[in-house]
Specification:
By secondary structure, this protein is an alpha/beta fold. The chain is 38% helix and 21% strand. The longest helix has 20 residues. The chain binds S-adenosylmethionine and iron/sulfur cluster.
Length: 451
C-alpha cells in the first residue's frame, strides 16, 4: 500500500509520458528535415555497410476498436495494390541514390497488417527490396502477423522470401474482453498460426498481449497468460492498453466504465509479470519478456539491448531506413519521417521524389541525452563512464542531471559510484524518470535545458 501511494504521489497514474522509442520523440519532429536532407544522409551511408530496413503497410481488413496504430480499414484490394506499387517505386528511388554495396542485416514488415498482402505482392516487394539491398548472411527478416489474416499460401510466400522471425498479435484470449475491444480471435486460430509459423522454420516468435483492457481482472489475465505460455513464444511484449480516443476515434467503442483503475492496471501487469518470470522468461526493459536463449535476452544480459520503434531490439545497425507512409528512418545525423497521409506519400514517390515530411537533425545534447534515456529503459541504469567515453560529456553535467532526477524521485532512484539507477520499486515509473533526462520536455516545463 505504502509503495502504491508513493507511486501515486509521484504521478504514475496520471502521467502522459512518451514511450521513448526515439529521442527526441516523434511529437518533437519539425519541418527541418526535407527530401534533400534525407538524400544527403543516404549519400553518407558508408559503402558496403549493413543497415536495417522497415516497410510499413498501413491497411487492415478489420479495424479493432482498441487499436491506436495508424492504419486504415479496407475490404477492397485496389488501394493495397496501388500502395504496394508505390513502395516498389520508393525502393527504386532509394536504389538510385544508395552508396555501393549496402546490404540489409534486419528487415521488418509492420503495420497495420502486412499479411493482408497477396502472396504475389509479398514476393515482388521482398524481391525489389533485396534486389536494391541484398540480405546479409544471417540477416533477420521479421513480419507482424495477424493470426486472423494469414493462410498457408501467404505463409509459404513469406517463408520463401526469407522470413525467419515473426510477431503475432494476441491481445487477450478472454471472450468477453475480445468482444469489448472489437477483436475476436479464438485460441485455436492463434495456436494454429503459431504451429504453422514453426512448421515454416520461424526461429524466433514474439507475441503481443495487453494489460489494462476493459473487463480484465486478475483471474482473467492469469488465464490469458497461461494460455499464451502453452504456445511457448520466444518473446512477449506486454503493453499497457493506451486509451487515447481523441487520437484513435475507433476507441469510442470501448466501454470506458469497464476499464480497470490505474491501481488495478499495475496489479494486472504484476500478475502477468510474475507468471512469465515463474515460467523462466527473463524480464527485458519495461514491458518485454524473453526466453533466456533468445537473442533479445542475450543482448539484455550482455549490455547490447537497444530501444527502437518496435520497442526493444538487439539490432545495432547505425542506419534504419523506413519505407512507406509515416515510416521513420534513423541516421547518425537524425530522424526523417515520410509524409503520414497515404495520398501525399504516394504523390511524392510517384514523381520520383523522396516522401520525407518531417524529422529531426541531432544537435547539442541530443545524442547523449538519448543514450541515457535508452540505457534507463533498457537496463534501469546509466553507466557514466560509457557516456563520458562515447560523447565526451563533462562529469559535472551528468552529476547535475542525476541529482535533479534523484530529488524528483527520492526512494525510487539511486546515484551510485558508476552512475545512476532506478531501484526495483521505482521501475513502474521508469518512463517518468527517463523524462527527467529529456531536454525537450524539461524545456517545455520551464526547466533549464542544461540543468
Ligand atoms: C501494429 S499492431 C500489428 C499487429 C497486427 N496487425 C495484429 O493485429 O495482429 C502492433 C501491436 O500494437 C499494440 N497496440 C495497438 N493498439 C494499442 C493500444 N491502444 N495500446 C497498447 N498497445 C496497442 C497491439 O498489441 C498490437 O499487436
Ligand atoms: S490490431 Fe492489428 S489488425 Fe487490429 S486494427 Fe490494429 S493493426 Fe489492424
Amino acid at each position: 500500500m505504502e509503495h502504491l501511494s508513493q507511486l501515486r504521489r509521484l504521478g504514475l497514474f496520471d502521467a502522459k509520458v512518451p514511450r521513448y522509442t526515439s529521442y527526441p520523440p516523434a511529437t518533437k519532429f519539425s519541418n527541418d528535415v526535407t527530401g534533400d536532407v534525407f538524400r544527403s544522409w543516404v549519400g553518407q551511408i558508408p559503402e558496403g555497410s549493413a543497415i536495417s530496413v522497415y516497410a510499413h503497410v498501413p491497411f487492415c481488413r478489420r479495424l479493432c476498436w482498441f487499436c491506436a496504430c495508424r492504419t486504415q480499414g479496407t475490404r477492397s484490394d485496389a488501394p493495397v495494390i496501388a500502395y504496394v506499387q508505390t513502395l516498389l517505386k520508393e525502393v527504386e528511388n532509394l536504389k538510385a541514390i544508395l552508396p555501393k554495396g549496402v546490404k540489409i542485416a534486419r528487415l521488418h514488415w509492420g503495420g497495420g497488417t502486412p499479411t493482408l498482402l497477396h502472396p504475389d505482392m509479398m514476393r515482388s516487394l521482398a524481391g525489389t527490396i533485396t534486389d536494391a539491398m541484398p540480405l546479409t548472411e544471417g540477416a533477420e527478416f521479421s513480419v507482424e502477423i495477424d493470426p486472423n489474416e494469414i493462410d498457408d499460401a501467404r505463409l509459404t510466400a513469406l517463408a520463401d522470401v526469407g522470413m525467419n522471425r515473426a510477431s503475432i498479435g494476441v491481445q487477450d484470449f478472454d471472450d468477453d474482453i475480445q468482444k469489448a475491444i472489437g477483436r475476436i480471435q479464438g485460441y485455436e486460430v492463434t495456436r494454429d498460426t503459431v504451429e504453422a509459423l514453426r512448421a515454416h522454420g520461424i526461429r524466433s516468435l514474439n507475441a503481443d498481449i495487453l494489460y489494462g483492457l476493459p473487463h480484465q481482472n486478475q483471474a482473467r489475465i492469469a488465464e490469458s497468460v497461461q494460455m499464451l505460455l502453452s504456445l511457448s513464444p520466444d518473446r512477449v511484449a506486454l503493453y499497457g492498453y493506451a486509451h487515447v480516443p481523441w487520437m484513435a476515434k475507433r476507441q469510442a467503442m470501448i466501454p470506458t466504465d469497464a476499464l480497470p483503475t490505474p491501481e488495478e492496471r499495475l496489479n494486472l501487469f504484476n500478475t502477468a509479470r510474475r507468471l512469465f518470470l515463474w515460467d523462466g522468461y527473463d524480464e527485458i526493459g519495461i514491458d518485454h519478456f524473453a526466453r533466456p536463449t533468445d537473442s533479445m535476452a542475450v543482448a539484455a544480459n550482455t549490455g547490447h539491448l537497444r530501444r527502437n520503434f518496435q520497442g526493444y531490439t538487439d539490432d545495432t545497425c547505425d542506419v534504419l531506413i523506413g519505407l512507406g507512409a509515416s515510416a521513420i528512418s534513423k541516421f547518425p545525423q537524425g530522424f526523417a519521417q515520410n509524409a503520414s497521409a497515404t495520398a501525399q506519400y504516394q504523390a511524392a514517390v510517384r514523381e520520383g521524389d523522396m516522401a520525407t515530411g518531417r524529422g529531426h537533425i541531432f544537435k547539442g545534447e541530443d545524442l547523449w541525452r538519448g543514450r541515457m534515456i535508452e540505457m534507463l529503459l533498457c537496463s534501469f541504469k546509466i553507466d557514466s563512464a560509457a557516456i563520458i567515453e562515447e560523447f565526451g560529456v563533462e562529469p559535472a553535467a551528468l552529476s547535475q542531471l542525476y541529482s535533479a532526477a534523484a530529488t524528483a524521485y527520492p526512494q525510487m532512484t539511486r546515484t551510485t559510484s558508476d552512475g545512476f539507477e532506478i531501484v526495483e520499486e521505482g521501475r513502474p515509473l521508469a518512463r517518468m524518470i527517463a523524462r527527467a533526462f529529456d531536454g525537450y520536455e524539461m524545456r517545455a516545463e520551464g526547466h533549464s535545458a542544461a540543468f
